[in-house]
């Protein structure tokens, strides 16, 4: 049942991604509403799939690459819905839903076997550390979408190519505020993930830091977003540079999440 629900959720996200791409250029309220409905249906089905996976495994469904990618996509959806109800930026769908679908599609191609929980993961730190990490990088994913949106709109205004796409996007200030708030949300959550991860490592392996590839790249990710904070509040960097840095930061996030597990040997490799 969980597999069927996952496939249905993937289908819902796929339809929403296609509709969002169409709406980006046609900018019709009917298409936008249908996109949100498909996204919502996919999210509900996705939530049910995660719940079934939890029941089948008897532990949080975040301990394999498939589960982690699926949960990552779910967290992006949560952040997205909270944000869209706050800012009412319909075009944000077109820049976030494709990310959700891409991550879900990646999850679909990863092994789906439900494995027993390894001794190292049998800890109360699991949920705390994972939730902080996933919600933090989900906020970074939405900031990435807003960064792409900002650069497109900024280029259109600068080159005076104010076509259908540019008209459907909100103003630069509003897009920058979304980017800024998402980094402000993601950075403390990711910081908490690193702190709780260090505490968990100390209780499991007897040390806070082991220079493991996942730890190193998580630190690199943290430093990129710390730089983003510094440049905004201390050096006065605004808007375009912040948008570029959020795009670079999310590229590092993707390597930390997928690249390290697939290319490097790490203590944090999923089961």
Report what the structure shows.
The protein is an all-alpha fold and 271 residues long. The chain folds into two domains: 1-112; 122-271, Up-down Bundle (Four Helix Bundle (Hemerythrin (Met), subunit A)), CATH 1.20.120. Helix content is 79%, strand content 0%. The chain has nine helices and no strands. The chain has helices spanning 2-26, 29-57, 65-87, 92-108, 125-159, 164-168, 172-205, 213-233, 240-263. Helix 1 runs antiparallel to helix 2 and helix 3 runs antiparallel to helix 4. The radius of gyration is 19 Å and the shape is globular. The two termini are 22 Å apart.
Summed up, what is this model?
By secondary structure, the chain is mostly helical. It is built from nine helices and no strands.
Write the layout of secondary structure elements.
Elements: H1 2-26, H2 29-57, H3 65-87, H4 92-108, H5 125-159, H6 164-168, H7 172-205, H8 213-233, H9 240-263
């Amino acid at each position: 049942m969980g597999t069927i629900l996952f496939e249905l959720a993937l289908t819902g996200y796929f339809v929403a991604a296609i509709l969002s791409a169409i709406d980006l250029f046609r900018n019709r309220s009917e298409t936008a509403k249908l996109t949100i409905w498909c996204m919502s249906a996919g999210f509900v089905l996705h939530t049910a799939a995660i719940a079934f996976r939890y029941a089948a495994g008897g532990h949080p469904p975040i301990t394999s690459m498939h589960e982690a990618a699926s949960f990552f996509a779910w967290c992006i959806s949560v952040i997205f819905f909270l944000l869209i109800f706050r800012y009412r930026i319909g075009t944000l769908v077109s820049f976030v839903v494709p990310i959700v679908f891409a991550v879900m599609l990646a999850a679909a191609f990863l092994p789906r076997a439900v494995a027993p929980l390894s001794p190292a993961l049998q800890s109360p730190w699991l949920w705390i550390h994972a939730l902080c990490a996933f919600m933090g990088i989900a906020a970074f994913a939405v900031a990435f979408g807003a960064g792409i949106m900002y650069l497109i709109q900024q280029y259109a205004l600068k080159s005076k190519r104010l076509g259908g796409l540019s008209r459907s996007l909100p103003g630069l200030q509003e897009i920058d505020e979304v980017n800024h708030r998402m980094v402000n949300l993601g950075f403390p959550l990711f910081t908490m993930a690193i702190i709780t991860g260090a505490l968990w490592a100390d209780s499991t392996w007897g040390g806070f830091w082991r220079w493991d590839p996942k730890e190193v790249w998580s630190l690199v990710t943290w430093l990129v977003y710390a730089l983003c904070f510094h440049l905004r509040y201390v050096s006065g960097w605004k808007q375009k540079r912040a948008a570029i840095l959020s795009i670079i930061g999310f590229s590092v996030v993707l390597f930390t999440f997928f690249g390290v597990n697939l290319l490097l040997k790490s203590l944090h490799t999923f089961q």
